[in-house]
Amino acid sequence: MDDCKAIYTTTCIALMKLTSLLILQHENEMKQVKTKVKERFLTSVKYIVQYIIQMMKSDRDGALPWPFTKRFTFILVDQQDDLSQRENIEAELVPEGEKHFKRPRYRENEEWGITEFVEHSTLHTRQYIRDHTVFVKIVAEP
């Protein structure tokens, strides 16, 4: 594991920071992948994709109802041409626990999310990756 390469993206969405991470899972320990793994090591490794959300402090916080109660659905879109053949993968994230969802007093609250949304190997099945692109639809419900 000599070649270093960060494998993550972060996007700020209104009052939330959404982080998508490719995680290396090995012998029940989870580590953020910051290195390129050699082929011979991949036999004992499982990659997973996770989505983490953090409530961010904002000047609009006074106008919002607290604690935050919206339910999130993450949908990995199967990009099959035939809609009837699509097998999207869904995971739901339901707000539970006051420390994650209360009005932020500091820069951001503790993170929460889906720690094992999909195994990386699953992305290469069906048409989850098409033209080097993956679509994850995120729905926030009242």
Automatic annotation (TrEMBL):
One protein family per Pfam: TRAF-mep_MATH
SUPFAM superfamilies from the UniProt entry: TRAF domain-like
Record keywords, A-Z: Receptor
Taxonomy, superkingdom: Eukaryota
Positions of the TRAF1-6 MATH domain: 50-137
InterPro entries xref list: TRAF-like (IPR008974), TRAF1-6_MATH_dom (IPR049342)
Signal sequence region: none
Keyword Ion transport on entry: no
Stated name of the protein: TNF receptor-associated factor 4-like
Organism: Paramuricea clavata
